Amino acid sequence: MAMRLEIPPEAVTADQPRGAEPPRNKPGGWKLAIKRDWRLYTLLVLPLLYFAVFRYLPMAGNVIAFRQFQPGGSIFGEKWVGLKYVVLFINDPSFWQAFQNTIMLGVLTLLFCFPMPIIFALMLNELRSQKFKKFVQTVAYLPHFMSVVIIAGMILQNFSMTGTVNQIANTLFGTTVNFTQDAAWFRPMYISSEVWQTMGWGAILYLAALTRVDESLYEAARIDGANRWQQTWHVTLPAIRPTIITLLILNIGTFMAVGFEKILLIYNPLNYETSDVISTYLYRVGLESSNFSYAAAIGMFESVIGLTLILSANAISKRLAGTSLW
Amino acid sequence: MTSDSGVRVADLKESRGVKAFRIFNLVFLLAVVFLTLYPFLNIIAQSFSSEGFINAGQVNLFPRGFNVETYKLILADGTFWNNYGNTVLYTVVATAISMVLTTSFAYAIAKKDLKGRSLFIGIAVFTMFFNGGLIPNYVLISSLGMRDSIWAVVLPNAISVFNLLIMKSFFENMPRELEEAAAIDGLTQYGVLFRVVLPLSKAIVATMVLFYAVANWNSWFQAFLYLDKPELFPVTIYLRNMIAGVTTAGSAGGTVENVGQIAANIQSVTIVLTVIPILCVYPFVQKYFFSGVMLGSVKE
Fold first, then answer.
1. pLDDT given for residue A126 in this prediction
2. Can you tell me the distance from the alpha carbon of B243 to that of A87, in angstroms, rounded to the nearest whole number?
3. Which residues have CB under 8 Å from B217's CB, separation 6+?
4. ipTM score for this prediction
5. What is the model's pTM?
6. For a tag on chain A, would you pick the N or C end, based on fewer CB atoms within 10 A?
7. Alpha carbon of B240 to those of A151, A275, B114, B197, B267: distances in Å?
8. Looking at the partner chain, which of B107, B130, B159 has a beta carbon nearest the beta carbon of A59?
């Protein structure tokens, strides 16, 4: 009986109802827990193995940034070289250009791609027709489900010399621009496509938050004489503030990880000046030129900045807004 | 009908402003719909147009110089079909692996009295914020001998922590009494999972299958990094190589004088053919993902 209930006999004491959990945090707790829940622990084995091999081993693999790596050699490198590779990238002007571009694209993405879903959600929320609302949403999510390869194909076609953007430019200004090969146009091209891609999907969480705003708050506001705009400002926005802050933290955390795959697909040597970001630079240095240790040093720098950003954003928001991820 | 409650009066007072806003809102949202759909419609139009019109920049919403030759060309290309088949295979295998790993992990960590639970959750969540980076991953996959094999594509991203957390909170919300009753009826924890919990979790399982399948169908980077043999490529790499100008539709486009331009047409056809399966599951994704995302991410 006790076996079938998954409760070891010693766990069932007089003052404990059947099926209650055995006392935890006591000496021998693990032993008891494993005895009781060994089946659950077996379920954890494969996933934990996965995390160990494919997630944590590469983290440890970062030591090759401080070691000389030889192709075909150990994944942890052959011998210690100290900060050699760190010093190398600190003195590398191409790295600093990529760094600058990363910051630039990160700031622009945050500036344009972060508020758009909020505005979009608020406007959707004003619709009376649920059918039309659903239709707009359905359409707006579509780009999110497309492969980045397809997105890249569309960007390159729409911004090509004969593409739609140039057709419009030609009609309006009588000129065409070689968008895809002009460094000055890379940022507008990247950001506009990014907004196009992310706006609909980004609005989901806000829409969900909006459905849970207490109706009586609006009623109270209306009785106090608030117009629509004031209702939005004083009721709606404060109500979705936790969602906004949470997503802002997440966005800041991924600030450095600007669309690596997309950039890799749409950039070219003619616009490296503005398009080359840290991750694409380290891709070229590491995998195209096989400087693994050097590229790993750059990659580690990138990850550490990312982690620092998210930790500080979280701490700041915890202090100022009382909302945090953990 | 026309009550003179405070609400109505207020609405009437600002009716002109409200009306103006409604019209603006409608126009704005219709513009969003148009701008979102336009690139897709444009690609479809291009795929059915002849090169001359694309070349002259005259193809917008509707095909010009209707032609299906390129479709025939691509559909007759053995490489395309081989790569398409690879995509199907990778998607099925990867999704299956992901589901097994995600479900078992999520089920275990959803048990609030499992000892070490917060440690296991922490192990997973930490990987959302910190990762090994491109180079260590590349070196790892290479030294595991997974290059040029299906494993390099299906294993490294097997668990999405985001999906894991969604599933975890779904399992957490299952009534505890149900599982306790099953346990009293003599089911082991495996039995509870397979015979009680999973049959009741069809919605979340379907959501996760769709999430993983769509992600796998769309992925290209793993394959791009680790596969060198063209016969192993998924169709996304076929398309990527076309975009990068590495190939023009296998051997097919050779006879055409304007290679650069036929490429635009061939690209459009390939894009359309690659997107079709996604569009087929899209209504289902629509149906499920919303509840799925809600479950996992919003719980203030």
1. 86
2. 37
3. A147, B87, B91, B277, B278
4. 0.84
5. 0.83
6. C
7. 11, 19, 46, 42, 9
8. B130
